[in-house]
Design a protein that fits this description.
Chain A: Its main location: other. The complex is a heterodimer of chains A (about 260) and B (about 450). With about 260 residues, chain A is mainly alpha-helical. Chain A contains 10 helices and no strands. The longest helix of chain A has about 55 residues. Chain B contains 16 helices and 6 strands. In chain B, a hairpin with a 7-residue loop joins strand 4 and strand 5. The chains are: A mainly alpha (about 260), B mainly alpha (about 450).
C-alpha cells in the first residue's frame, strides 16, 4: 500500500515536472516572440531621442516637443522590460521630479521653461538608448523577468494620477498609461496567455478581461475623465490574477519592486 | 493624506475649469491656472497632524460603529463622484476630526481654512453663485455643540451630516447604518484635555494674574448693554456655548462657537476673517464699545488662550501614526468578513488600500531624485505595503464571490503582517522616507521647482 502511494506521488511529480517543462518551453518561445516588439519600442524611443537632439540643435521648440513625445511613447511601451530587466537604467532615464538628466529633465525645459537648451540631455538620452538598443539582440529574456515587469507595471498603472502624474508638465500621463497598458497587453498575450489558457482557462479569461477593462478605462478624452477608483481596482485585480497565474505557469510569485542589485 | 501631490489646491484648479465647462464629472489636473497663495502650506505634505482624542478610548477601545464611521469619514466614495475623483473625503477638511487651517481650494476658498459649501464644484444645484466660504470648523466636542452648521440651522448632527453628504457634495444617499456610524464617530471626538480648566469651566491650577483678570472681564456685563457679556453666550459651564445663534454684526445670525481647544481652530469667525484672538477682541471692543484698555485686551487674550489650550494638540505624522489609523479601520473587516457584508468590505478595502498606496509613496522609489541611500530598505517598505494592498484586494474579491473562508484566511495573513513585520520594515526605511524632515523638504522643494518652471517661466 505504502509503495503504491509513493509510486503515485512520484508519477504525479513527474507529470507536474513534465507540465512545467512544457510550460517553460512555451514561455521561453513567447519571450522570444516578445523580443522584436521590445526592439521596435526601444528603437522608436531612440529614433525619437535622435530627432529631439536634432530639433534642439535647430532651436525648433515645436519639433523638439514632438520628438520628445515620440521617444517617450516608445519608452513607455517597453516598460514591462525596463522595469524588470534594467531597473537602474530605468531609474536614470526616467528620474523625477527635478532630475538633472533623462526624460523629465528634458520635459521641464521643453514643456515648462519653453526652451530648447536640451542638447546635452538629449545626447545623453541617445547614448543610453543606443547602448540599450545594442544589447537587446542578445539579452536573456526570461519569462520570470517579463512576468515581474508585467506585474509591477500593472500595479503602477493603478496609482493615482490625480495630480497629473509623472509627466505632468507635458500633460502626457494619460498617453503614458495607455502605452503602459499596451505593453502589458502585448507581453501577456505574446508570452503567457497561451500557456495559462492550457492549464487554467478561467484565469486566462480573467487576465484578458482586466486588461480589456484597463484599456477601456483609459480610452477617455483626457486624464480628468479617467475613473480613478475603477482604474485602481482593475489594476489590483489584474495583479492578483497574474500572481495566481505565476504558480500555474511554474514561475515564482512576482515581486512588486525590482530588487536592489 | 500624502502622495506626490503638489497640494489639493493645485489639484482642484483644473477641476474648476472643467466645472466651468459644465463637465463636473472629472477630477483635477494641474493646469496653467494653478495658483497657490503665498505662504500656504500644501494640504498633503504637513508632517504634524492634529491629535485625535476619542472619548471611548478612555474607557476601553473604540466600538465597531465608531471605527466604521471613521472609515466612512475618510472615504472619498462617500461624497459622490467629483469628490471621489479628486480624492476628497470629510477627512480632507477635518483632518483627524479637527479643522484644516491649511486647506485652500482656488475659487472655493477666500483664504486658507475656509470652504464655500454652496459653491459650484461639487453640487452645481447647490451653487448660490456667490463666493461665501465659511471657515472649516473643528469637530472636537461636537457632541456638546448643537445646533450644527455655521448658522446653526440643524438641530440634529445626523441631519447635518446627511445634508453635507447629499446636498453640499451631491453624494449618494448614505445607508442609515453608515450615517449612524459617522455620527457615532463624530460624537466620539473629544476636546483636547486642558488641565487649566476646572469645574464649571473656571480656570484652575496655576493661573496667571493676566488670565485671572481676563476671566473676570469675560464675565463682566457690557457697559452699554448690561444684559450682555462674553460669558453670556460663551457659557463656561456649558462648553463655552449657549446653543444659540446671534448677530454680532458680522453679517447675519451665527451660532456661538466653542472656545474649547480653540487655540488650534484659527481662523476665527464664521467666514474665517480673523487670524487670532487679538483681532477678535479688537472687533468686539469696537462693535460693542467695550472701552477696553490695552491691558484689558491682553488679559482677555491671555484668558482665551488658557481656555482654548489643549494637551499635545499635534502629533508627528509617521508610519506608526498611519498604521494605527489603518489598524483601527481594519477592525471593521474583522466583523464584516464573517458576516459576508460585501458593501462594508468594499468600502474598507477601497479606503484602507488608498491609505496604504499613499503610505507607499512616503518611501520614494529609485527614480526619485530627492533621496539617495537606503534603497534596499525603501524597496522592502514599498514591496510590503503593495503586498498588503493586494491582500486586501483578494479579501474583497473573495467576499464578493461568497468565499468568506478564503477571505478570513487572507485577513489572518494581513493581520499577521501588520502586527510586526510591516512596522519593522517601515521603521528601518524611515530615515530615507518623506517622514524624515530633510527628505521631505527636498522632495517638496523639487516638486515646487518643477511646477514653478511651468507657471513662472511661461
Amino acid at each position: 500500500m505504502h509503495k503504491m502511494l509513493l509510486a503515485t506521488c512520484l508519477a504525479l511529480l513527474a507529470a507536474l515536472a513534465g507540465a512545467r517543462a512544457a510550460n517553460a518551453g512555451a514561455l521561453e518561445e513567447g519571450a522570444e516572440r516578445y523580443r522584436p516588439y521590445l526592439i521596435e519600442g526601444i528603437g522608436s524611443a531612440l529614433a525619437g531621442a535622435r530627432a529631439l537632439r536634432e530639433r534642439a540643435d535647430a532651436a525648433d521648440l515645436a519639433g523638439a516637443k514632438k520628438a520628445w513625445l515620440s521617444a517617450r511613447a516608445g519608452w513607455e511601451r517597453s516598460e514591462v522590460f525596463t522595469a524588470g530587466f534594467v531597473p537602474e537604467l530605468d531609474a536614470e532615464i526616467d528620474a523625477w521630479p527635478n532630475a538633472d538628466s533623462g526624460f523629465h529633465a528634458i520635459e521641464a525645459k521643453l514643456f515648462g521653461a519653453g526652451n530648447t537648451d536640451v542638447r546635452a540631455d538629449a545626447a545623453a538620452l541617445v547614448e543610453h538608448l543606443n547602448d540599450l538598443r545594442g544589447k537587446l539582440g542578445d539579452i536573456k529574456l526570461t519569462p520570470q523577468g517579463l512576468l515581474d515587469g508585467t506585474v509591477r507595471l500593472a500595479y503602477e498603472v493603478g496609482e493615482s494620477k490625480a495630480d497629473g502624474g509623472e509627466s505632468r508638465i507635458s500633460g502626457t500621463s494619460l498617453d503614458d498609461m495607455r502605452n503602459n497598458i499596451a505593453g502589458i497587453d502585448f507581453a501577456y498575450h505574446t508570452i503567457f496567455a497561451g500557456a495559462l489558457n492550457t492549464v487554467d482557462g478561467k484565469l486566462d479569461e480573467m487576465v484578458t478581461d482586466r486588461i480589456g477593462q484597463l484599456k477601456a478605462i483609459v480610452a477617455t478624452s483626457d486624464l480628468p475623465h479617467v475613473n480613478i477608483a475603477d482604474l485602481r481596482q482593475t489594476s489590483e485585480e489584474l495583479v492578483v490574477a497574474l500572481q495566481s497565474a505565476s504558480a500555474k505557469l511554474g514561475l515564482q510569485r512576482p515581486t512588486l519592486e525590482a530588487q536592489v542589485r | 493624506m500624502k502622495m506626490l501631490r503638489l497640494g489639493l489646491a493645485a489639484l482642484l484648479s483644473g477641476l474648476i475649469a472643467l466645472v466651468a465647462l459644465e463637465r463636473a464629472v472629472a477630477f483635477p489636473v494641474d493646469g496653467n491656472k494653478t495658483v497657490l497663495p503665498a505662504t500656504t502650506e500644501l494640504n498633503e505634505d504637513a508632517l504634524d497632524k492634529p491629535r485625535e482624542v476619542f472619548q471611548s478610548e478612555r474607557a476601553g477601545s473604540k466600538s465597531y460603529l465608531v471605527n466604521l464611521g471613521d472609515l466612512a469619514f475618510n472615504s472619498p466614495g462617500l461624497l459622490g463622484e467629483v469628490a471621489r475623483q479628486a480624492g476628497v473625503s470629510c477627512g480632507t477638511c477635518h483632518v483627524n476630526g479637527a479643522n484644516n487651517p491649511k486647506f485652500f481650494m482656488p475659487k472655493m476658498s477666500s483664504r486658507p481654512g475656509t470652504f464655500d459649501t454652496s459653491g459650484p464644484l461639487f453640487n452645481p444645484k447647490a451653487n448660490n453663485l456667490v463666493l461665501d466660504p465659511v471657515r472649516i470648523p473643528s469637530l472636537r466636542g461636537a457632541k456638546y455643540l448643537a445646533p450644527y452648521g455655521a448658522d446653526g440651522r440643524f438641530a440634529s448632527l445626523r441631519d447635518f451630516v446627511h445634508n453635507v453628504i447629499t446636498n453640499e457634495f451631491a453624494g449618494p444617499e448614505p445607508s442609515p447604518a453608515t450615517l449612524d456610524a459617522i455620527v457615532a464617530y463624530i460624537q466620539d471626538i473629544d476636546f483636547l484635555p486642558n488641565p487649566s480648566l476646572g469645574p464649571a469651566g473656571r480656570l484652575a491650577g496655576k493661573v496667571s494674574e493676566s488670565e485671572r483678570r481676563g476671566e473676570a472681564l469675560f464675565a463682566k456685563p457690557f457697559p452699554h448693554d448690561p444684559a450682555l457679556s462674553c460669558a453670556g453666550c460663551h457659557v463656561p459651564s456649558s462648553g463655552f456655548v449657549d446653543h444659540q445663534q446671534h448677530d454680532v454684526g458680522s453679517g447675519g445670525l451665527f451660532k456661538t462657537p466653542t472656545l474649547r481647544s480653540a487655540d488650534f481652530n484659527a481662523p476665527y469667525f464664521h467666514d474665517g476673517r480673523f487670524d487670532d484672538f487679538g483681532q477678535v477682541v479688537d472687533y468686539f471692543d469696537r462693535t460693542f464699545q467695550l472701552g477696553l484698555s490695552a491691558q484689558d485686551k491682553g488679559d482677555l487674550v491671555a484668558y482665551l488662550t488658557a481656555v482654548g489650550d489643549g494637551m499635545q494638540p499635534y502629533e508627528r505624522d509617521g508610519a506608526g501614526a498611519t498604521l494605527k489609523e489603518i489598524n483601527d479601520f481594519s477592525t471593521v473587516l474583522a466583523t464584516a468578513i464573517p458576516s459576508g457584508d460585501k458593501d462594508i468590505v468594499a468600502l474598507a478595502v477601497d479606503t484602507i488600500g488608498r491609505e496604504l498606496r499613499e503610505l507607499t509613496e512616503q518611501y520614494p522609489d529609485r527614480k526619485n531624485t530627492s533621496v539617495s541611500g537606503g534603497e534596499q530598505q525603501r524597496v522592502l517598505a514599498r514591496n510590503s505595503l503593495k503586498e498588503l494592498v493586494l491582500t486586501l484586494r483578494r479579501i474583497e474579491m473573495a467576499v464578493a464571490a461568497g468565499r468568506t473562508a478564503d477571505a478570513a484566511a487572507e485577513f489572518r495573513n494581513y493581520r499577521y503582517l501588520m502586527a510586526a513585520a510591516v512596522p519593522a520594515v517601515l521603521a528601518s526605511a524611515e530615515p530615507w522616507s518623506l517622514f524624515n524632515q530633510d527628505v521631505h523638504d527636498r522632495h517638496y522643494a523639487a516638486l515646487r521647482q518643477v511646477m514653478q518652471s511651468k507657471h513662472v517661466l511661461h
